[in-house]
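User: I'm writing a tutorial on reading structure tokens. Could you give me a worked example: one chain, its sequence, then its tokens, then a sentence or two explaining what the tokens reveal?
Assistant: Sure. Here is the example chain.
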Amino acid sequence: MKLSELKELLPALENVSFQLPDGNFVPEHFHVTEVGIVSKHFIDCGGTVREEKAVNFQLWDANDYDHRLKPAKLLSIIRLSEEKLGITDLEIEVEYQGSTIGRYGLGFSGQHFVLENKTTACLAEDRCGIPASKQKLNLADIKASSCCAGGKC
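And here are its predicted structure tokens:
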């Protein structure tokens, strides 16, 4: 989800909630402790130099059980970060502390935001020597060729 999409969704919501990939929810007394830009400048295994940028939200579960972040407050935090940091309409990445700090993509279910698992991939499959995937076939699905018709094989 891009930042512009999040900003469009917030005014219509009564509450801000985040669902984890396992179906549980981030406790409702969470804080957004950071909004920023994360930048990654790297070289892939094929030798191509790459750069990625994303808007980063850090969610934190404190013992502040009376805290509830409202959509208008989150929108004001986003606007301040756009003004002060020059944040543009980038994809959103969310950090949340589980057993370690997890980094998630962001989706929306129609009622709440959904933290989506991220995956790794080779960005240079054509140059780093990974063999192409072979199509797996089920032998029972293969029809006998004409030379084998009538049991003449």
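What the tokens reveal: Helices lie at 3-9, 71-85. The radius of gyration is 23 Å.
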